[in-house]
Amino acid sequence: MYCQNQWGDEGDLGNLIGRWRERESFKADIYRNLTDYPFEDITLRGPQDYETYLTQMYGNYMQLPPEASRQAHAVEGVYWR
Fold it and tell me: Does 72 reside within a domain?
C-alpha cells in the first residue's frame, strides 16, 4: 500500500497485517530504485538498497543466531526417498 499525505510528501509502503507489522513498513523511496537479482533459473526484482531492507526486517541478518535459538521450518509429511 502507498500513502501520500495532503502536502504531497512521499509516504510509506508496508504490509501492516504481515507477521512483523511495523517492521514491514518502509519509506517509499526504497522501492523507487529496483534492480534484478538472479536466483537459480529466474530473475527477481528487489530494492537496490537491499541492505536497508534486510537490516530493518531482520536486524543483523549476517549473524547466525545462537544454536539454541535456531528454529527449523520443516513441513510435516514431506519425505526424501
Answer: no
Report the half-sphere exposure of 39 (CA within 13 A, side-chain side): 7
Q: 29 near 10, Cβ under 8 Å?
A: yes
Cell numbers for 34: 529496483
Would 79 be classed as within a structural domain? no
Across 1-81, the runs of DSSP E, i.e. the strands, are 2-4, 10-14, 25-27, 34-39, 42-47
Q: Does 68 reside within a domain?
A: no
User: What is this structure's pTM?
Assistant: 0.61
Which one-letter amino acid corresponds to residue 63?
Answer: Q
38 lies in some domain: yes
**Residue 39 scores a pLDDT above 90:** yes
Range of the domain at 19: 2-62
What pLDDT does residue 9 have? Answer: 52
